[in-house]
Write a structure and sequence with these properties.
168 residues; alpha+beta; five-stranded mixed beta sheet; 10 strands
Amino acid sequence: NIYYDRDFDTAAAKILPGEYYVTARDMVLVTVLGSCVSACIRDQVSGIGGMNHFMLPDSNQDTNSPNNVSARYGTYAMELMINQLLKMGARRANLEAKVFGGSSVLGNFVSANVGGRNAEFVLEYLRTEGIAVGGQDLLDVYPRKVYFFPNTGRVLVKKLRKMHNETI
């Protein structure tokens, strides 16, 4: 989902649920989040960075099953992206994360608390991996549109006050 973003005058990649994208190029990575979470991770020295978009912390099932090895689950999405960052030349010691999402966009669907579980998962995962969190905008009730510039680490977040089903 690569396109040219006229607002930022640069190449852009749209990250959909269950996807991730890692790049060394000077570009913007974009996603829209509700209860899902996105981790934006970059090497602060080289500028190699990526964004993922996961729907659930884990599958709660057999992780060896091919059906459960998917980037829609945080455990796998984080592993995939970090491994790709390292493969492209990022150094683990230089990694910094910024995390977004985990909102409760469906007010009457609170019992599962998917957004809260996703937010808790990503912070715990990064703490366990020793990756510093340089910024976050988690929880709340609004969906968000996130723009991440891996080369500089800049992130813009727009809270979507009016929600359309096609947006999320």
